[in-house]
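Appendix B: a complete holo record

For completeness, this appendix reproduces one full record from the ligand-bound portion of the collection. The bound molecule is manganese (II) ion. The inputs are the chain sequence and the ligand SMILES; the output is the full three-dimensional arrangement of the complex, encoded as C-alpha cells. No fields have been trimmed.
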Amino acid sequence: MTIGQADTGTDAKMGGPQDVADVIRRSKRILVVSHLRPDGDCLGSATALLKGLESLGIEAAGYNETGVLEKLRFIPNTDLISTNLPDWTPDTTIFVDCGGVGRVSPVFEPQGFLVNIDHHATNEQFGDLNWIDISACAVGEQIFELLGVLGVDITREIAYSLFVSVCADTGSFRYPNTNEKTFELAAELTRRGADPAEICRNLFESRSRNEVILTARAYSRIRFECDGKLAWSELLWDDYAEAGGVDHEPDGLSTELRAVEGVEMSILFHEVEGGGLRAGFRGKGAVDCAALAQRCGGGGHRNASGYFSDKVEYEAERTKILEWAREAIREETGG
Ligand SMILES: [Mn+2]
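The structure of the chain with manganese (II) ion bound, as generated:
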C-alpha cells in the first residue's frame, strides 16, 4: 500500500507539517514510536499525537521498547504507550524524537510508510517522509503545529503533554533552544489548561532517594581536565545495582556536570549491565557535542548529545572517548 508519494530516487524525502498531515489523513492504522529511555519530550509528543489521532477516528497505538518510567507517569495518557507492538499491522509508522531507526530499539523493524518527526541536527533522515526542524525547541512544538494543521482541538490533556515536552527539552526554559516562539507556545498551552508549576514540580523537584544517592556518587567521582574545560564522571553498574536499577538514574545529571565555571564540556559515562557503555555529552557552545557523539557512533545536538553501545568493553571505550573529547576541546577552544 502506498500512502505517500512514490520514492523517485535515493534523496531523502523532506517535508513539513502539511505533508505529514496528508499522510495521516490517508492512514487507517498508525503506530507511534519513540526512543529508548523515553524523556519528557518523547512521551509528551507521543501522547499528544496519539490523543490527536484518536480524536480523528484513526486507529493508533504507541510503542516504546523501554516503557514509561514511573516518574514520568504523571504525563496524561502514558497508558497509550506499550512495550508490546499492537496485533495489527500499521500502514504508517510515525517516529517522534528519534535521530535514527535504531533509537527505537536495536532490533526494531518498522512497517508501513515511515514518517520521521524530529528536531535533532544529526537525524539520519531514514523516513519515507522526514520533517526535521532543528529550530523547534522540542518535538512537542512540531506536534502542536501538526495538530493545528489537522484541525485537532487542543484539549487540556494534549496541552499538558505538549507543555511537558517543551519544559523538559528546554530545561525549564533555560537552554539556548528557548526563544520567543517557545514562550508564545507555552502561553498558549497554559491558556489551554497546562499547569506550569505542577509540571515543573513533577519534572524537576520530585527526586527519589535512589536518584539522590546516584547523584552523590557521580559528584564524588567528578574529574576536571584540560585546564578545567572538561568535567567528567561515571556511574558503574554496581552503583545502579545498589540503587535499584537504571530506572533510578537522575534525569539531567550530565547537564548538571556542565554547570561548573570554566567547563566547556561535560561527559557522564554509564556502565551498562553486561559491559556496554552509555555516555551523555553536554556543552556550552564552544565544543561540538554532536560531532563527538557522531564520532563515537551516536548523535544529538551541538550542546547535548549521547551515545550507546552494548558491544564494547566499558573501560576501553571510556578511555577512547575521553581521548577524543580532549582532542575536540584542544581543537575547538585552542587549548
Ligand atoms: Mn526532543
